[in-house]
Design brief:
This is (wild Malaysian banana) hypothetical protein. It comes from Musa acuminata subsp. malaccensis (Wild banana). The chain is mostly helical and 42 residues long. 24% of the residues lie in helices and 0% in strands. It contains 1 helix and no strands. It is elongated, with a radius of gyration of 13 Å.
Length: 42
């Protein structure tokens, strides 16, 4: 699917979440991940 759009994936993140919740970067982002991203890109 991504190859058809000309998108190349060079990194993949795998999160092990013990609390059983699911997260989505747009609709239900993790507050910890959101905080980390803000610190990396001021």
């Amino acid at each position: 699917m991504l190859a058809k759009q000309g998108v190349k994936v060079d990194k993949v993140l795998n999160f092990a979440i013990d609390d059983g919740r699911t997260y989505h970067t747009k609709f239900a982002p993790s507050k910890v991940l959101e905080l980390m991203m803000c610190q990396e890109n001021p």
